[in-house]
Design a protein that fits this description.
Layout: H1 2-20, H2 26-34, H3 37-73
């Protein structure tokens, strides 16, 4: 299970860094010039962290339910 998590996190981080290296669009230039890029990055980071925590908790719940189901059948 830990291997899946590490692999998933590695892929997410590689995609994030790959996308940040792409060419800037007009919207990105606007956010840089107005100084709001930090807010955009902060909100994106909060959303990603929230999704990761949600999926981690969901995985723990499913794992616990699977263990309970196996224990009941034995």
């Amino acid at each position: 299970m830990k291997i899946k998590t590490k692999t998933s996190l590695t892929i997410i981080f590689l995609l994030m860094f790959g996308l940040s290296a792409s060419a800037q669009s007009g919207m990105e230039e606007f956010f840089y010039q107005s100084g709001k890029i930090n807010v955009v990055i902060g909100v994106a980071a909060i959303v990603l962290v929230g999704l990761i925590v949600y999926l981690w908790r969901l995985d723990n719940r499913v794992t616990r339910m699977e263990k309970e189901q196996k224990g009941g059948k034995s």
